[in-house]
Amino acid sequence: MKKKKSKTPNAPPFAVEEESSDAALCEFYTHSLCPYAHRVSLALAFKRVPHARKHVDVSNKPRWFLQVNPRGLVPVIRTREREVLNESIDLCYWLDASFVGENHPPLMPSDNDERNRALRLVKAADGGFIAAGLSFIGGGWGFTEGDPGDARRATLAAEVAKIEDQMDDWDTFLCGVDPSVADVVLWPFVERFELAMREFNDTELAEMGGKKFSRWMRHMKKLPEVRRLAPDEAKLLKSWRRTMRLDYFDYETADMDDP
Asked: Which domain of life is it from (predicted)?
C-alpha cells in the first residue's frame, strides 16, 4: 500500500519531547481521543519504536501543526529525514516495514495463511465492522441513545461473525498467537464501541459474537501495551456526553497522558 508523504521545509525542527529519549526514531502527532491515532500508538508500542509524542488539539489546530500537516488531521509521523506521513493504516504498514529485527517484533505474520488473513481483515475493517459499529451507536459519528433496531443489530452481528469466520479455534489473536496489524487496526474501535454500546445502547459488544470474538477481546485487554494505551473511560464518556460525537477531539476533557 502506497504511503502518502510530503516535505515540510518550513516545519518546526525535529524535536524530542522531555518524556521521550534522544533515541527517538520519529515524531508522532496524535490526540488521546482519536481511534485512528490510537492505531498508530499501538503499532509503535508493539513494534517498540522509540518516538517523540506530540499532542494536537484537533478542535483548535495550532499553526505549527498546520505547517507539519496542512490537512490538519492526526495521526501523523514525521521521520528524521523530515518526511511527513499520514493515514493510520499506511502508517502501521510503514512502521512494520521500516523497523525490523529482534528489537522490533513484526506486525505481519510470517505464515502465509495468517498473513493473507491479516490483509483481508485490514482491507475489510473500515467498510465492514467499523461502519456497522458506527451505524449501531448512532449512524455517522454521532451517538443515539436506546435500541438501534433489529436491522442495525443484525448488520453488526454479521460483521462480527465475518471476523470470527477468519479465526481458527486455537487463535489467541485475530491472526494467530501474536498480535498483528489486524488487531492494531480493529482494536481502537472495538474498545470504543464496547464502551459506547454499554453506555448508550444497553448492549454488550462481546455478546454479539461467539466464543472466538469474546476470547479475543479478553486476550487483547490483558496485553500491557493495550492496557497502557487505553483511553480513560470516565474522561472519554465525559467528552462523548458533552458533544454526543465520537469524532470531536479537543483537550477539555481529555488529557495528554501516555495515550
From this structure: Eukaryota
- For residue 79, the SS3 value is strand
Q: Is residue 253 part of a domain?
A: no
The answer to whether position 88 is within a domain reads yes
Comparing 133 with 1, the larger pLDDT belongs to 133
What is the rounded distance in angstroms from the CA atom of residue 162 to the CA atom of residue 173?
15
Q: What is the pLDDT of residue 4?
A: 42
Of 98, 125, 159, which one is at a domain's C-terminal end? 98
Domain match, 58 and 24 both: yes
Interacting residues of 17 by C-beta distance below 8 A, sequence separation 6+: 52, 53, 54
Q: What are phi and psi of 73, to 5 degrees?
A: -115, 150
Q: Which three cell numbers stand for residue 102?
A: 529482534
Q: Are 56 and 121 in a shared domain?
A: no
Distance CA 134, CA 240 (A): 14
pLDDT of amino acid 23: 85
Peptide bond into 75 cis (omega under 30): yes
Amino acid at 221: K
Q: Which residue has the cell 487463535?
A: 171
Domain total of the chain: 2
Burial of 190 (0-12, 13-18, 19+ CB in 10 A): buried
Phi, psi for residue 92 in degrees, rounded to 5: -65, -45
Note down the domain range covering 143. 112-222
Backbone φ and ψ for 4, nearest 5 degrees, come out as -90, 135
